Amino acid sequence: MKKGKYGTQRKNKMKRICIISGNPNFLGGVSIYTKNVADYVKKKVNVFWVYKGEKNRIYRKDGISFVELSAPRIYILDEIIFSSKIKDFLNKNYFDVINPHAIWGYWLKGYKRKRKQKIIHTYHGSTYHFYKNHRERNSYIKKIVAGLFMFFGRKIEEPPWRKADKIICVSEHVKREIEELYGKRNNVEVIGAGIDLDNFKPRAKEVIRKKLKLEKDRIYGLYIGRGGYWTKGLDRVIKISKEIYKLSKDYQLIVIGSDKGKVKNLLNNNFVTFISLITRDKLPYYYNAADFLLNLSRYEGGNPTLTTGEAMASGCLVCCSKDSKQEIIKNKINGLVMGGNYKQEATAILKILKNERQRDMLINSSIKIIKRYSISNIGEKYLKFILEK
Predict the structure, then answer these.
(1) What is the pLDDT of residue 5?
(2) What is the DSSP string of 22-72?
(3) Regions of the chain where pLDDT drops below 50
(4) Which of 250, 16, 36, 226 is nearest to 122 (CA)?
């Protein structure tokens, strides 16, 4: 076979799949979603993972070939340049299946597919709706900027919907949002996040708290989120935590992953324990140690989101906002859905924690449901969808 810039076209009869997604070293939802499916399918197909980075290079790690393409750190411009480099890479290298994710499918506009090549795009959310949510912010300037980005989001995510052979949406509500923007089409499948049930599983709370040097008898809430506060709802988490703390001085909120420089004022509360970044291998223990997870996002794509699914699998009670649209969570059946009445909801959380029977019922129900979202189940569903005719 002809050699491309990044190596021999075929080494064996296994099909070659090119996944275009986020940086594999970034601990964000899109990258982890991609990693979970890539790790599962790599035994049956040759996986190449293309991502935007600081330099042009190719390397192999853990059975996957990674292709890093450089782009400047200037938002929108970086996506335009990255899209051009993707197209150049794909023109020089053959893949049986190409699977771009999220906003990284704009290169499809003008791309001439090769013979027998299949293209499947995965939507992790609607960029248009993500920025529409930002128009609720108080700053007039931020409202204007959000409006401009809404236009950008609509344009950059349209080509895959028009030109891909098949579409994957990570939740039913993402499917509805994309359909509202571009109309309905065939060959759309909803495939949620795969959860690593070998690492995220129930463990003895007392043992784990001792391991993490947390107090045995405290009530611990947990928040996990990167970046600022708006989309992930850290300000909401702080508000409800203030109400919980008024009712119980034994309460402590563990905040993991936020950019301290952006949320310093929110963290300045005596009930907050802040942890910058932790490695993925340590994360399961914090779910085990916490009494409940607060996922009060203003916008989410996945169902479940990784934090929701991992908390469920770990035996941690999930409390999510109504507008995060965690379709997997049913109020008072396998978790709590919050509407914004913080005083009332703080009381409800403490009441459930004190009612051991009800608490265990919710947690056991969530553990049972999340087993459907194991990496093997999701990986097999994904593999079948991308390979079938």
Answers:
(1) 52
(2) S-TTS-SHHHHHHHHHHHHHTTTSEEEEEEEESS-EEEEETTEEEEEEE--
(3) 1-3, 7-10
(4) 36
**Which pLDDT score is estimated for 285?**
98
Backbone φ, ψ for residue 319 (5° rounding) = -120, 110
Measured between alpha carbons, how far is residue 246 from residues 168, 243, 293, 302, 350 in Å?
Answer: 44, 5, 19, 33, 11
The pTM for the full model equals 0.93
Which CATH superfamily is 3-194+375-387 part of? Glycogen Phosphorylase B; (3.40.50.2000)
Cβ pair 316, 292 in contact under 8 A: yes
> What pLDDT, in 10s, does the model give residues 102-130?
999 999 998 999 999 999 999 999 999 99
Sign of CA dihedral 245, 305, 43, 108: negative
Q: Which phi and psi (to 5°) does residue 247 adopt?
A: -85, -25
Q: What is the pLDDT of residue 315?
A: 98
Rounded to an integer, what is the distance from CA 207 to the centroid of its chain? 29
Query: In this structure, how many other beta carbons lie within 10 angstroms of the beta carbon of residue 365?
Result: 15
Helix/strand/coil percentages in the chain, nearest 5: 40, 20, 35
Q: Does domain 205-372 have CATH number 3.30.450.200?
A: no
Give whole-number Cα distances, 387 to 43, 48, 380, in Å. Answer: 14, 16, 11
Instruction: Tell me the domain boundaries of the chain.
Output: 3-194+375-387, 205-372
In 135-197, which residue ranges form alpha helices assigned H by DSSP? 140-156, 158-163, 172-182
